[in-house]
Write a structure and sequence with these properties.
Layout: H1 2-16, H2 27-43, H3 45-56, H4 58-64, H5 73-77, H6 83-91, H7 102-118, H8 125-134, H9 138-149, H10 154-166, H11 169-178, H12 185-197, H13 201-214, H14 217-220, H15 232-249, H16 252-265, H17 270-277, H18 282-291
Length: 293
Amino acid sequence: MKTLGLVVVVMAQVAMARGAIEVKLAPADAAAMQKEIAAAKKSSPLAFSAVQSVRAQMATLDAKKRGRFAPVTPRLNAIPDATWALAEAIVLDGSLDPALPRSAQIAWQTGLLESLGGRRDAKTEAVLVAALNASVEPETLRSAADGLGRLGTDGAAAALIAAANQRTGAERAAVFAGMGTCRRAVVADFLAKTLATTVLEKEQLALVKSLSMIGNEWALETPAGAPVRAEVPQLRAAAAGALVKLFSESQGNVRQQASDAILIVNAPETKVLLAQVRVKDPAAVDALLLKTH
């Protein structure tokens, strides 16, 4: 009965919560999150006050921003031991004054999601999946996909693919743009196959961006580059194959972005792949080959 009572209380708190994003957690996930938050408040109380301090500054940060959105993620990243403080702000206690501009709301939400995902704590998967499923603003969707992808778990990969398949229009492109942080073979294959079939430029550009991230030669060599090291060759091969195909079949900005991404991935297969499509545009392929190494 005690366990049942805890679940009821937790669900009531989640239902009444004014988190930064209106997420829905399963009872078991909500209970687990609440326990982690309670423990973190004992061990790292300053992290919670620091996150709330950033929230209190959002009006000022938004007013002083130089671009579309205030750079909130670096401020949150600088807070030590803040994993569960960030999760609490997303789900339970992080809403801004509704009177604040849309730009402030989005900057806050994206900052929380990106900072939480960047901590790569698999225990936060349920929170990030729920945020991904709840988000509707393209910027927030992209950040939710970005944050979830950084976990690199099987569950994260499956949730990202499901979200991409369920969304349409700008929302679908936003998921594509963010999910390149999930360097898993199943995600790379999904992005590559999708790029081969879509004719929408916005989706093509988002997929190119993610494939350049998922197969990034330099990033894959870092300790956190790929959750499963054995999948690295597959990541780079899938990205290179899709990007070379797009390069050979497109023009203008799409071709230029594909060209840049090919160089970022720099897969061992690149020169062979380019040779196979050279007949379509020898001058363009030769110019790109000169940049490869």
